[in-house]
């Protein structure tokens, strides 16, 4: 069974909603994403590229890389509000390919908020080299989180 939180992840009462959100996110386990840091406006994680994640060029498929970045984006923009915050518009720039067996590290930082809106940047790294840059606009909703 995949562990979605790294051993040093600490949650505070202010970030408890992010823990709950991630615990209900089945895509993290499916893709082997581990959340390694959760702080206000900041989330980090890791994911190792497997053969099943690769396209016909033996590099990580863009949609999977996007999903990794999106998961970190969700954490960063939900750390400072108890009301669900969702993506309203996002884009990603693929800079370099990710290869099978590589462990990627992602860093998400919410850099701006105004009203119910936010701007969050996510960088995906292979070692020290950035391989993707994701930028997302978020919107805090007025509805409660969904229940299972």
Automatic annotation (TrEMBL):
What are the protein's UniProt keywords?
Answer: Hydrolase
Recorded hits in InterPro entries, A to Z, give: Acyl-CoA_thioesterase_PaaI, HotDog_dom_sf, PAAI_dom, Thioestr_dom
Q: Where are the annotated coiled coils located?
A: none
Q: Which residues are in the Thioesterase domain?
A: 59-130
**What's the protein name?**
Hotdog fold thioesterase
Which species? Corynebacterium gottingense
Q: State the organism's lineage.
A: Bacteria, Bacillati, Actinomycetota, Actinomycetes, Mycobacteriales
């Amino acid at each position: 069974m995949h562990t979605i939180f790294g051993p040093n992840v600490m949650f505070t009462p202010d970030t408890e909603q992010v823990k709950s959100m991630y615990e209900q996110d089945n895509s993290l386990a499916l893709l082997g994403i581990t959340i390694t840091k959760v702080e206000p406006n900041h989330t980090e994680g890791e994911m190792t590229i497997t053969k099943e994640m690769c396209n016909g060029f033996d590099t990580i498929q863009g949609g999977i890389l996007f999903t990794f970045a999106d998961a970190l984006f969700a954490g960063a923009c939900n750390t400072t509000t108890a009301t669900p915050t969702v993506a309203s518009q996002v884009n990603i720039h693929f800079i370099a390919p990710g290869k099978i067996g590589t462990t990627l590290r992602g860093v998400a930082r919410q850099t701006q908020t105004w009203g119910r809106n936010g701007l969050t940047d996510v960088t995906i790294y292979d070692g020290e080299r950035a391989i993707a840059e994701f930028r997302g606009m978020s919107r805090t909703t007025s509805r409660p989180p969904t229940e299972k």
